[in-house]
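Page 42, continued from yesterday. The earlier attempt failed because a stray header line got pasted into the input along with the sequence. Redoing it now with the clean sequence only.
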Amino acid sequence: MVNLKVKVGDLSLENPLIAASGTFGFGREMAEFFNISTLGGISTKGFTRLPKIGNPAPRVAECDCGMLNAVGLQNPGLDVVLEEELPFMRSQNATIIANIAGETMEDYIFLTEQLQSQDLAAIELNLSCPNVKQGCMTFGSDPVAIEELTHQCAKRSRHPLWIKLTPNVTSIAEMAKAAEQGGATAVSLINTLLGMVIDVQTRRPILRNNTGGYSGPAVKPVALRMVSEVYHAVSIPVVGMGGISSAEDVAAFMIAGAAAVQIGTGLLVEPSLPWKILEELPALCQELQVDNIADLTGTLELWN
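This time it went through. Structure tokens are written below.
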């Protein structure tokens, strides 16, 4: 019998599969068709202090080997999340990772404080959304800001604190070290790569925001490299993501150093994907000769 349980620091998960923020909402639609409690966890739609309407349409564009999105953190705001969305997720016995975003440090601190009475597995600070004008990337590309923001939230939080990092930086290892020094209990990576698609007939970007976050199978090699780099740079756990669409992808991310993984764009293509992968993981583990899937983490053997 293969054991699929994993630990992200002190947090135990039934399996390593987490629905990535922004691709699963708060689980309402999926709960109509699947048992969402069987996932290792659900990272909520990123939410802010006040409601956000997001960017103007069009804000999603399909492209080679993936997609671009510039949704811009559309969300109902903290009050609705507390009153409606989190209670619903708890009613489904979901393992909840609250993904929060803000324009200022005070926003993140306020949200962290307001979540302390909630039954959550973790809080994930989104410091990496490329599709908003203020906050997120402003913090996520500056190691000094990452360390200070993480420190301010960590000292106020009774929950594990994950920092979601952007790949749109010179050194993601430096950003991860800053999060660790600030008191993060884990880092999650990678968020989307900044990209553009152009309509040659109109000679304009297809996205009204001009640029958007590129995700899907093509980002997987970049994500694997960055997960491996960060795994060797910090002592806190890494949650990996970026183009995962199979059990073999999950294994690759764990071998690179991920303690758990998040599935994003693959969910939009095939909503049943996590449950399909969950069925396939035991056989793959047997093939890889591991009784505990957690034993795969960090076993990458680099060439000299």
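Notes: The domain at 6-54+70-193+214-296 is CATH 3.20.20.70 (TIM Barrel).
Reminder to self: strip header lines before submitting.
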